[in-house]
Amino acid sequence: MFQLLIHFAHHVASKKLRRN
């Protein structure tokens, strides 16, 4: 369960980082 959260956070962070 925790791994899924990390995976999702990483995906969101990657998208946010790319947008910046």
List key phrases describing it.
mainly alpha, 0% strand, single chain, 20 residues
Q: What would your notes on this structure say?
A:
By secondary structure, the chain is an all-alpha fold. It is 90% helix and 0% strand. The chain is rod-shaped and about 30 Å long.
List the helices and strands and how they pair.
Blueprint: H1 2-19
Short description:
This protein is mainly α.
How big a fraction of the residues is strand?
A: under 5%
Order of helices and strands: H
**Could you list the spans in which at least 5 consecutive residues all have pLDDT below 50?**
none
Main beta sheet = none
Shape, principal axes of CA atoms? rod-shaped
What helical percentage do the residues reach? over 70%
Total of DSSP H or I helical runs spanning 4+ residues: 1
The overall pLDDT, averaged over residues, is 88
Estimated structural class: mainly alpha
Q: Would you report the number of β strands?
A: 0
